[in-house]
Amino acid sequence: MKEGKLLIFVKSLATLLEMHPSEELIFSNGRKLLESLIATDDWLPEAFCKPHPDYYQQYLLYADPLDRFSVVSFVWGPGQKTPLHNHTVWGMVGQLRGQERSANYYQQADGSYTAEESFVFKPGQVATVSPKTHDIHVVENDLSDQTSISIHVYGGNIGRIERAVFDPITGIEKLFISGYANTATPNLWNTAGNPAS
Amino acid sequence: MKEGKLLIFVKSLATLLEMHPSEELIFSNGRKLLESLIATDDWLPEAFCKPHPDYYQQYLLYADPLDRFSVVSFVWGPGQKTPLHNHTVWGMVGQLRGQERSANYYQQADGSYTAEESFVFKPGQVATVSPKTHDIHVVENDLSDQTSISIHVYGGNIGRIERAVFDPITGIEKLFISGYANTATPNLWNTAGNPAS
Ligand SMILES: [Fe+3]
Ligand SMILES: [Fe+3]
Ligand SMILES: [Mg+2]
């Protein structure tokens, strides 16, 4: 039985994390695994590609029951954008389809947040976030006429973590838990009928 | 956020298995966890309760990507029955709904297999299988007029393991891989719309 690309990624990442690697090793070896996964856009089942007319969507693809990691499909319709937010755990964002812009913000002396750097991601490219260095950003679909999709990997169950959104002007933070849009996740061991299965 | 019963079970079992327990400990502590899960029949989503008119169904609920364990819903229409088969890994079968009969077979001097014991399981009861002692059985729906459902837990990914069915008369074995009927598994972290979520 041929193993699907998402299963191969989840297995490889689980194996890497079993060694309790440093964040540096996750961002080198784990990044290569994610780059492999997003090298071709032929494996994500249709159900996890659907944009919502009003909000960007977060579809859980796999989460470890002991909260060691999670893999999520983020789907952005034209013009959709996150609030300024943090993650509290390491994260890697791999562009699968379309194009996204991510701006990293840093708190200033007066408490406000300013974007000090901004990057555009094309399919195949990977961004990182880390509470140790750059954890607060705004991500948006950089295309006005099509859906963008990125595959996010975090060192925790991102949809269940209590984290924060920030008012960039006042710096006031508000706690939130993002949740997931989907009640069904892919069966990694039965991809019949899925693309590239 | 309230955790669903299936999530609590999967987390507790993963935590137990992290300690690399003996089979004896799995069959005592793990069994208690399974008994808790099946103590009430109000949590299994409809999609994983559906009988097939011709065959018993195996719906994957959760599998560990490193093949440490799997949790599967087995659904039997009236009159449905497995062939004589083995598992090759430890297993626990918890009756959730209806009633099943399980007969343990042992190979005789002439190579044939004979049922030496047979048990009926009612909701809340747990059976075990083990390659060390009793791994070869036939399970059937013991009710002629309703669906029976049991929740199976194995020390491997049961739908992916190469194992065997046996001709009880000749003892001839044939390898098989059972697979899964479902391409989508429950999102353990979003049970909205599911019973008892
Ligand atoms: Fe983010
Ligand atoms: Fe069996
Ligand atoms: Mg371990």
TrEMBL record, chains A, B:
The keyword Transport does not apply. Fe cation binds at residues 85, 87, 137. CDD domains: cupin_CDO. Transmembrane segments: none annotated. Keywords: Dioxygenase, Iron, Metal-binding, Oxidoreductase. It holds the Pfam family CDO_I. Signal peptide: none annotated. The keyword Electron transport does not apply. Belongs to the cysteine dioxygenase family. This is Cysteine dioxygenase.
